[in-house]
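ugh ok fine here u go
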Amino acid sequence: MIQRQVSAAIIIVEVFVLSFASSARAEEPSKSLKQRLDKLVLDCYPSATEPGAAVLVTVDGKTVLRKGYGMADMEKGVKVTPDMIFRIASITKQFTSVSVLQLVQQGKVSLEDPITKYLPDFDTRGKTITVEHLLSHTSGLPNYTEGSAYEKGMTRDLKPAEIVKLVADKPLDFEPGSRFKYSNTNYVLLGMLIEKVSGRTYANNLKSSITKPLGLTDTRYSRNDGLTPRHARGYDQDSSGEWVPMRPLSMTQPFAAGAIESTVDDLAKWTHALAEGKALDPKLLERAWTPYKPSDRPSDYGYGWFIHTSSGERWIGHNGGINGFQSAAVWIPEKKVFVAILRNGLGGVAPDVLLGRLALEAVGRPESKRVAITLPTEALDRYVGVYALSPEVKFIISRKGNQLFAEAPNKSKVKLVAEAEDKFFSPESEVRFSFTIENGKATQMTLRRAGRDSIAKREE
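structure:
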């Protein structure tokens, strides 16, 4: 799940990040689309001996690229194949959203209902938090996976009510409905609502209401002991950059916010079924695929999907990160383009970076290349320091030789490459970094993702 920062902490928040570059790249135009897409993947995941990814690109319902890259099991020497099963992390949220909207369609739930109508024991801190606030991440509820304390208890089996209690003593971040802030707590509560109203467990409701009717044979609630030869094994990178088996995580903890596993094929089938009105009334789906409008600040999130618009196209999708796995998928209805990437490594180039490049190639607007410049070490030193997005989220900017690095909580260092004296990018992320200089020293850092800026103030 990755927050609006570079952190890839376990089930933290993901933000769907895409580049909408419109300038064409004159790179071997004679090659077929499949060859160009394949090269873009190999540019990001070139190693055949490290964790890789399953990748699917469809255009107008026809498969253009469907391929596995790298290793699914490094110890056993098993290669990734495109039909392998991966944990999809926060892409789970769109399944949770549709499960709730199916109950709305059946007249059992209203989007305007307060969550206490279904979960009367939940403490809303004296405020009215509606079902819609939870779906759109505008409730103000703190995120239970945010902060270093969460990692210490990742192996515990917890009931949903116990997960919610992890932030029970924290105040709301803002007035419900006033702004967007991604919080996994929202979707745990929605999972609890589904169980209460349907009378089934979240996993059983998923099966009976979505996966079985739509023929999603490889999509299910992931289990700690459910591995088969078709399951990719997850890996993390340690501080030295070496690939190691993923850190243990009880799959009770992601719950309705991130516990589903699937394949690229099932994700394509799922998306096309939605677009064809097979899973949900089109009017409700359109509401889910439209950014919610908070009262104070704009949002690019609907119900379980991020939505960005560029060149008359809607890019509707989500990404995710969980111990050992990353994911990203997007649907562009105006071009009938779908892209999905499931990766079994938490490290290296993020799938959402590759996703944007593949999607742009598929719609005929290849991403323009960035041009790097070299800065002297004395110029780089002015940026070295600690920058705080919030009291819990801080970036460390460091220098080694003539190379600048950025490090966020629970994330290995990423290289920063200069494209101007005060502007940098990372080859591993779509985040752009710019600095404000006062008296020869940086005083703040601005992170730009998906057209939005986040300010990190320098602390030291």
